[in-house]
Each structure stands twice: as structure tokens, then as C-alpha cells.
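Lab notes, practical 5.
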Amino acid sequence: MARVSKPDAPLTADSFGVVPGRFWHQLDDGRFQCDVCPRFCKLRPGQRGLCFVRQGVEDGIVLTTYGRSSGYCIDPIEKKPLNHFLPGSPVLSFGTAGCNLACKFCQNWDISKSREMERLADHAPPEKIARVAKRLGCKSVAFTYNDPVIFHEYAVDVAQACREVGVKTVAVTAGYHAPEARAEFYNHMDGANVDLKAFTERFYKQVCAGSLADVLDTLKYLKHETDVWFEITTLLIPDENDSESEIEEMTQWVFENLSPDVPVHFSAFHPDYRMNDKQRTPSDTLFRSRQIALKNGLHYVYTDNVHDEDGGSTYCHNCRAPLIGRDWHELKSWGLTSDGRCATCRTPCPGVFDGPPGRWGRKRKSVKLREFA
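Output from the prediction step:
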């Protein structure tokens, strides 16, 4: 099979947001295989992949949402969630439409499951996003709400534009990525939060239509082959992925295959999309999971979507002094030196720190890029 995609070809968005895809090849039967994610959708002209935004055309595969967004907001970086990446700073967040997984519990389903291109109402070239982020005082831009894996070309171009003006980029992703496309993608990212949805193949297959092994491969790739700062989030769903044995196995794997310094977030589920029959995650489940992870040697373990100042704060793993106190997404105290060390015992705190902490707080602000020249 000869590769006919051209990863280095320049991309120019037309008025409909359609650009050539970078990763695909033609099969012997004439179909085009998308090589962006492990689903490897095989498409004829006019057909779309499961993500809906990558489509077969006469001479290959195109991305249909380049330059188009479902909306922009300024969020606290802790909402991604990233607790060790420019704490307290504002991040300009946006997504497009579609997703390459089919999670029954999706909590952004109105965006990630959208098949309506008219939802993509805000248009912006990469250079404008970078310029507006800088003007608004955002230290980073986040690709979020739906998975940036599927809008690879747009995300990479935005990341390049951001680097040119000194703004960092963050991918909020499920990590379901094919190796070649993944290498190019993370070459341009500064940070990531990877949604480790569970720790069984059963859950990934039956609930997400994906594969755990591919996500674990991405996590190992990030740790051992890149300089990208990343954190892990697991949404705990009652009776699905919240058993003590599964949390034991998952946190032991993180310790042994990644590092005890990789932050892990346990997040509370609320009924949504096709799992409205499930109850909300009890707070005790989050607290118990955090204790299991700490017992297994992980240094930085957090509880999210629940009011828990202890579980939301960062402590020195050596002397247990508080390093970053948090109440929801509000920074309350700061115990780090200017070079990112514990002010009490001088033990380094891993992460990306740039001077004093930000003061953005928990507020969220909508932004309309069309209002900026």
C-alpha cells in the first residue's frame, strides 16, 4: 500500500472549512484509510468516518471543520483539569464538533456528538486565535469540549501560531491516537490532560467503542518519548469503573509504567446522554479512590467536580507541606518558590510553572472572536 498523503503539504481553508487531511493512504480496493486514530476508518468518496468530520473525497480524505468552532471561552486552567501547568492562569478554550469515540456517558455530547455543522458558528484562522489569546492575557490555548485528535490539522496549525507569539497549547483528549499522527500532534503541544476512561477492555469496548491498549500506549509515549506535561483524569461511574480492585490496578500501572509524579484526577460523574439511569458519583467513592492511589505511591492525586479542598490542593510529597491550596478552581495559598520547589523542604514540584501564580480564579467568560479585528 503506497502512502499518498502529504503530511508536509500546506493547508489553506476554503470558505467551507475543508482542507486536505494529512494522514491517510489508499487501499487496494480504492478506498481511503484514515490513519489519524486506531479506528482506521475506510472511506469511499462521500463517506464520513465515525468522527463525522473526516470525509472521503475523490482523491483522499479531508477535514471538514478547519477554522470553525462551536465557541470560545476563557476558563481557569484547573478546569481542564491541569493542576501543575501554569496554576491560576486563564486559558482560551475551544472545540469543534464530532468525536472518534462513542462514550455513552459523554458530558459534552451536544458538541462531541453533533452532526450539525451549523453549530460551528465562530470562524477563526490559527493566527487570529493566537493573537486574541495573547491580547486577552491567556497564557495558553486549550483544544477541548471535543477531542482534538479528529481536527488534527487545525489543532497543529493553531499550536504553531501560538508558539510564535509565546502562548502555550494544551490538548484535552482521550488519547485514542494512531502512532504516526500522534507523533506530529504532540510535537506541537505543551500540555495535555488524557482521559483514562477506565482500566478494562470491556468498558472501552462496550461503553466507548474504543480500546484501552491504544490509550495506554499513548500515555507511555507521552511520558517516555516527549517533553509534554500531562495529567490523567478518570471519570468514576457507579458500578462501571469505580471498584476498588480496578482503581488498585490502574494506579499501580501508572506508578510502574509512567511515574509517581504524573498527577491523577478522579472526577465525579453526573447522569447524561445515554447513561441517565446512573446515579451521581458519591463523594466517598472519590475520597476512597484518592486514598488507594496515594497508598500505591502516586504523589499527586486529586478529586474533581466535588467540593473537597484537601483533594483539590497540592502537597509536597516529601514533607506534606501545602504547595498550592485550592477551593474549587480558586487558588487560596502558594507554597512554591520561584523555581517550583517546596518552600519548606526545597523538594521540586514537577510541572510547568512560570513566575507567580495567576489570579484568574473560577470565573468563565465567553469570547466571540469575530468581535476582534
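Observations recorded by the TA: DSSP finds nine helices and 20 strands in the chain. The domain at 68-366 is CATH 3.20.20.70 (TIM Barrel).
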